[in-house]
Amino acid sequence: MAEQVQLQIRQQETNVEARERQVDQAKAQLETANLNLSYTEVRAPFDGVVTKRNVQPGTLVQAGTALFSLVSPNVWVVANFKESQLERMKPGDKVTVSVDAWPDMELEGHVDSIQQGSGSRFSAFPAENATGNFVKIVQRVPVKIVIDKGLDPNKPLPLGLSVAPKVTVE
Q1: 124, pLDDT greater than 60
Q2: Strand partners, 81
Q3: SS (H, E, C) the chain
Q4: Who's near 136: CB < 8 A, 6+ residues apart?
Q5: Which of the given ranges, 82-91, 114-123, 156-165, has the highest pLDDT on average?
Q6: Which residues form a coiled coil (predicted)?
């Protein structure tokens, strides 16, 4: 009788060890499933508004596929000023901006930064003067203007609208 009880104890210990291995396998499968689930989420690098969605829910995509465009809720304008207009302009200068699409809207902002190069230096095909024609061409330099106030949530400002900035310099 004692031998039978010992045999049953060993069998149950073996069953417990087998169940512990099954639990370990199930934990590993759960970790793999959680990892795979994390691959199904799209996390944006910043807050914004989704525009131009290129895929629909359920679409299988590869790494690097553009799913949509994300537009920052922060509003700014890049104005191309003539190089002769930059002499006294500096970051922090106050700016008023009128929007062609909304004539009654006047925005207030400030100069955030002045690009350290003209637009022609950063274009895909910069103009090269190989003909010997040395006519001076006034360059335009991009200036980033951050809008601080004056936005109306009922009047959207889509990308690419024309504006007229006026910088107050000291």
Answers
A1: no
A2: 141
A3: CHHHHHHHHHHHHHHHHHHHHHHHHHHHHHHHHHHHHHCCCCCCCCCCEEECCCCCCCCCCCCCCCCCEEECCCCEEEEEEEHHHCCCCCCCCEEEEEECCEEEEEEEEEEEEECCCCHHHHCCCCCCCCCCCCCCCCCEEEEEEEEEECCCCCCCCCCCCCEEEEEECC
A4: none
A5: 82-91
A6: 2-36
CATH number of the domain at 74-168, out of 2.40.30.170, 3.60.10.10, 2.60.40.1180, 2.40.160.60? 2.40.30.170
**pTM of the complete model:** 0.61
